[in-house]
Amino acid sequence: MRKTQFAPGEYYHIYGRGNEKKDLFLNVRDYCRFLFLLLYFQSNVIINNISYHIAIFLKQQKFKISKETVQKILDNRGVKLIAFSIMPNHFHLILKELQEGGIPRYMQKILMAYAKYFNAKYKKTGHVFQGPFQAVHIEDNEQFLYVSSYVHLNPKDLNKWKNKEHEYPWSSFTDYVTENRWGELLAVDEILGQFKNPSEYKKEVAENNTEEMI
């Protein structure tokens, strides 16, 4: 039985890694696929032909999902996506559960969909992820802000992005300090609303860039 119990209205740090610590994302298309799932699987709204939407993103750097579909997702979502960082062999998320069982359903859909895609694309079988996703309940606002810094600083472990973590395209950090690319599908105001402006939040993150959490 999972140690962390989920409850509507509560926030959680969710993370997972590739089986045997192997890379989960081997090229840009893989990162796009996982990002698409994070954004558009927040409810039970079905979006067909995901590959088409990925192809559009690779050309235009945005997903062409209709406003009507996005609104349906927002009206029925079981979770709220607060922050994310997608790394070569692992991922970190901050989620708020909105409906009973929302986070387990959301994560099951994402991990199953991505594993099916990955195994089909690379002609593999077996587990793609290393066991069930991990979850830590965020108990207070201090922890909430610190975990957001931790998630957004993950790219510092990649030489290309060290000291440029806010520019890493597969993290929500860039959405916090520049322009939110995903609108209401990424709930930046839950954290940014606590700061005068994005620069103040960026400063907060930099001050936490001193220690590891996990």
Detailed description of the structure:
Helix content is 41%, strand content 13%. The chain has 214 residues and is of the alpha+beta class. The two termini are 22 Å apart. The model has no long low-confidence stretch (mean pLDDT 93).
Rg over CA atoms, rounded to whole Å, is 16 Å
Biggest β-sheet description:
4 strands, antiparallel
Total number of strands:
4
Q: Using the alpha-carbon principal axes, give the shape.
A: globular
Number of helices: 8
Low-confidence stretches: none
Quaternary organisation: single chain
Task: Name the descriptors.
214 residues, 4-stranded antiparallel sheet, 8 helices, globular
